[in-house]
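This follows on from our talk about sequence and fold. Go ahead and set the record down below:
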Amino acid sequence: MISVEHVSKRYRTRQGWRTVLDDINFTLKKGEKVGILGRNGAGKSTLIRLLSGVEPPTSGEIKRTMSISWPLAFSGAFQGSLTGFDNMRFICRVYDVDWDYVRTFTEEFSELGEYLNEPIKRYSSGMKARLAFALSLAVEFDCYLIDEVIAVGDARFNERCRYELFEKRKDRSLILVSHSERAMKQYCDNAMVLDSGKLHLFENLDSAQAFYKASYPATLAK
C-alpha cells in the first residue's frame, strides 16, 4: 500500500515561496489503478516525483509497503558520462536484481544496439526515454508511475510498451497522469483531481471526470 499523509510541497521562487501541493492525503492499495487529473502546472508531475522518491515532501509523510517505479521514461537519474550499460549496472546494484536478465531484456526491448556502449550524454531525448522505459520494465515493481500515456518512439515501439505495461502487468497498481479521457477510462478504476494545490477524491471515475470537465471544460481531451 501507498499512504500519503498530510503531504505538502513548496518551492522558493523569485516572488517568494510557492505551495504546489497543500496537505495531500490518499491511499493506494495493491492492484488499484488511479488517474490524476489537473491543469498544466497543477502539481501532477510534482506528486509523481514525490511518490517515486525522486524528491522529498516539504512536510508530511509518504509510507510505502510495496515497491514503486520511478516515473516511466524518466531519465533524469542517469549519469551522463557513463554508458548505457554502466547505468544499467548501477540500477541493478541499487535494486539488487539480476544483471544478466536486465541486460538481455533492456538490449532487446530498447533496440539501442551499440549505443548502449556510448555515454548517455550523447543520447537524444528519445533514446534516453527508450532506455529508461526498458529499465522500468526490466526491474519489476508492484506499482508503476506514469506521467502521461507512454509516447516513446514509433508506433510499433509504443504498442510494445502498452502491451508490456497494461497487459502483462495488469495485476499491478498504477498511478496515471493524463489529460486523455480515453486513457483514464481504459486504464484506471478511479481518478483524483488536483486543483490549486488541493487533491479532490471521488467514489468513481465518472464523478472525477464530471468534476474536472465542469471546472475546466476545454481541458479534458478525448
